[in-house]
Amino acid sequence: MSGVARDQDVDIDLGQLVRAVWARRLRILAITLVGAGVAFAGAKIMSPQYRSETRILIEPRAPAFASTQQVNDASAGPLMDELNIASQVQLLQSADLLKKVINDLKLYNLPEFDDAANGSAMSSILVKLHLKKNPLENPPEERVIDAFVERLQVYQVPGSRVIGISFTSKDPKLAAAIPNAMANVYLSTQSGAKLDSNSEATRWLEPEIEGLRRKVSEAEKKVAEYRTLHGLLQTNGTTTFPAQQLNDISAELTRVRGDKANAEARAQAVRNALSSGEASDTLPDIMSSQAIQRLKATESGLQSQISDLQTSLLNSHPRLKSLRAQLSDIRSQIRQETQKILASIENESKVADLRASELERQSDTVQANSARAGEDEVGLNALEREATAQRQLLETYLVRYREAASRADSNSSPADARIVSKAIEPVDPYFPKVVPIVVVAAVATLIMSAIITMLAELFSGRALRPVDASPEAIEPEAAVEEKHVPQAAPIAAAARKPVQPSMLAVVAAEEEAIEDVKAAEEAPQDDNEFSVASVADYLTGSRAPLAIAISPTGDNGSAATVLLTRMLADAGRRVILIDMTGSGYPTELMAEDNAALGVTDLLCGEAAFGDTIHGDRLSDAHLIPQGRSDVRRAMRGVDRLSLLLDALAAAYDLVVVECGSADVAGVSRLTRSRDVEIILSLPEVEESIFVALMTEFHAAGYERVVLMSGGDGAEQEFGRAA
Questions:
Q1: Residues with Cβ within 8 Å of residue 592, at least 6 apart in sequence
Q2: Measured in Å, how far apart are the chain's first and last C-alpha atoms?
């Protein structure tokens, strides 16, 4: 490796790899164009392949004259099953179906499918030497089927009952004709299978129906003979004659018993009226008698006459006596008629009683006959069940026979599938796709050329660089110096120079200065005014993303930087201060907790980025404190600090880094760009120190160097901290 010792740790220089690729960009571009040209020529030389597709929907289909029940029965079959669809896919790829398509289209006459017909000379020699079987001895469809299968693709469309048939061919017409021919042959095969099934069913049902007809006739004849032999005559189709007769007698007996009870009640009512001497004209049986009604009318007339004559004649008058005698006679007649009515009612009761007795006797006789008939019905029911079963089976066979016979025509048995999309002649070839092939080839060539170039740089050693001085080499010297540093400044103890207690001073200046950037505007400096407020106004106008503050005199300069940060925050700018001092004085002035997580914890990987950002206790500014992790271990990852500053610059208007008494080498580790603001915080201006620092920073390429004198503002900041 050039420039690298054999036992020295090295790292990959990514920038050198990129520069190497960029330096050879013309060669890489030329190779890429050559690769694209070769791919274009190859794509043009290839024979174009065309692809077309037919789609078939598997669904139950019935003739137009089929009943709704038949359609429902068909739809409930196994056609909806996923396995059935997969079976149909295999059926479409069966050898018999493919051979039929090959023969129908005469594909064996096409060189695209039958290479054996136009065999090579070497193949002919091998055949003559009996080292190879003559392919022409095989049937034409057998020779074609392998090439046919290679170009065929049959698949089930996911999530549906649709089967796709696609075919690839050099001829676009043939690419469309073959899928359509396969679909037609498949539908014809399915329809023929259903037709054969119907024919088989018809042939099997004919003798079965004839045999069932004889069995049904014999069973019904046995039922009729059994009924006649045992007298089990039916009345209304559901009950026998003895049962119907018993029902009629029971109904009549109930009615007669009701008439008897009614007659007895009426007779008792008449007896009660006669025995008590009460008026009987309220009884229905008496009032319904015509003779009683006439006698009652005569009685009423006599009473009326007696009442009229009593007003003018004495009671002993012969006329009154005569009328009273007639009235007594009429009442005697009424009692006689009432006795007759009572006798008539009693006769009705006796007749009803005799009728009930007769019906009870008949009921006993009929019950005995019905019991015998029930025993005979057991055998009758068995015969009827047998006859019913035979009749139902015969009717079922007749229905099936009619259905099968109606589907004997080929047009009456459609296949359980239909074509939903026919293949059409493709216009554009399926393969090769010239543009994608050329683009992919060009990109692949470009990437491979870049990779080869990078590998060449790596193996030559030009893309390798030695690792920075190891921290172990620094620790012994720092450990010796640490004995002379007070405990109140632990970070300063890690520095390489005791007079510069800054964290950035730990790392020596090992890198060369990068190219000078375009000089920015000179910082406007008032010969008489370098106050904190003037510097704040300058930074507000410059809109600089990063400002690095150097405090050669120590904590009073850091206090001025804190005052500057707060002024910028009060002016409405989003500003954050990073405490990179050895004393941690900015953290003491701004943080609520001096032991808060900070930049050393972040560099050691012991804290998350968001956990190190804290708010200023006296303003809207933010702070990243010094932290509490080991400084020497944190300095090993100081190169990552530039990434931290870039991230903060994207989120804040200004990032202020207080570096304490750092030098140019330490500041150079923070950023690789010289487009930053350098603030020399000197509360008490010492011309020699200022001139020396200005000269060093200008020599290193930093042109924006601003002097800031703390003055009274710094003293106020000390007072507020106290």
A1: 614, 617
A2: 59
**How many residues are recorded in the chain?**
722
User: By CB neighbour count within 10 A (0-12 exposed, 13-18 middle, 19+ buried), where does 564 fall?
Assistant: buried
Q: What is the DSSP secondary structure assignment for residue 571, as one 8-state letter?
A: T
The candidate with the shortest Cα–Cα distance to 692, out of 683, 708, 704, 705, is 705
- Structure confidence at residue 663 (pLDDT): 81
pLDDT of 282: 62
Q: How far is CA 375 from CA 54, 198, 330, 641, in A?
A: 72, 47, 67, 112
Q: How far apart are CA 310 and CA 156, in angstroms?
A: 125
Of all residues in the chain, the percent with pLDDT exceeding 70 is: 75
| 362 — pLDDT class (breaks 50, 70, 90) | confident
CB–CB of 161/87 below 8 Å? no
Q: Is the pLDDT of residue 488 over 50?
A: no
* Cis ω for the linkage preceding 471 (within 30 of 0): no
| CA 224 to chain centroid | 68
Helix (H) or strand (E) holding 176, with range, is: helix 172-230
Cα 703 from Cα 675, distance rounded (Å): 8
Contact 36, 493 (CB under 8 A): no
Provide the pLDDT confidence category of residue 76 given band limits of 50, 70 and 90. very low
Measured CA to CA, the distance from residue 326 to residue 293 in angstroms comes to 17
- Taking each helix axis as running N to C, give the angle between helix 14-23 and helix 434-460, from 0 to 180 degrees, rounded to the nearest 10: 120
Is the model more confident about 129 or about 645? 645
Amino acid at 147: A
Average confidence (pLDDT) over 14-19: 84
Distance (Å, rounded) from C-alpha 693 to C-alpha 664? 8
Report the distance separating Cα 61 and Cα 411, nearest Å: 12
Torsion angle defined by CA atoms of residues 366, 368, 370 and 375, in that order, rounded to the nearest 10 degrees: -170
E strands, 526-598, in order: 546-550, 575-579
Coarse DSSP helix, strand, coil percentages of the chain, rounded to the nearest 5 percent: 60, 10, 30
Cα-only R_g, the chain: 63
Dist. CA 489–CA 503, nearest whole Å: 11
d(Cα 708, Cα 683) in Å, to the nearest integer? 7
Q: Tell which residue, 583, 569, 575, 563, has the closest CA to residue 626.
A: 583
Strand partners of residue 57 = 162, 418
In tens, the pLDDT along 288-298 reads 777 777 777 78
270-290 pLDDT tens trace: 777 777 766 566 677 666 777
Both tokens assigned to 635 = 């300095």
What pLDDT is recorded for position 123? Answer: 62
Cβ-contact 31, 445 below 8 angstroms:
yes
Tokens of 40: 């274009």
**Of 232-236, 379-383, 400-404, the least confident:** 232-236
How many Å apart are CA 363 and CA 599, to the nearest integer?
Answer: 119
Across-strand partners of 417? 58
Name the band, by pLDDT with cuts 50, 70 and 90, for residue 116.
low
Residue type, 647: A
| Cα–Cα distance measured from residue 180 to residue 176, given in angstroms and rounded to the nearest whole number | 7
Supply 172's token pair: 């676009």
Residue type, 594: N
Can you name the residues that pair with 623 across neighbouring β-strands? 577, 614
Residue 431 DSSP class: B
Regarding beta strands 575-579 and 152-156, do their DSSP bridges make them parallel or antiparallel, or are they unpaired?
A: unpaired
- Residue 564 makes CB contacts below 8 A (sequence gap 6+) with 532, 535, 536, 539, 549, 656, 679, 681, 708
Mean of per-residue pLDDT scores for the chain: 76
Where is pLDDT greater, at 669 or 32? 32
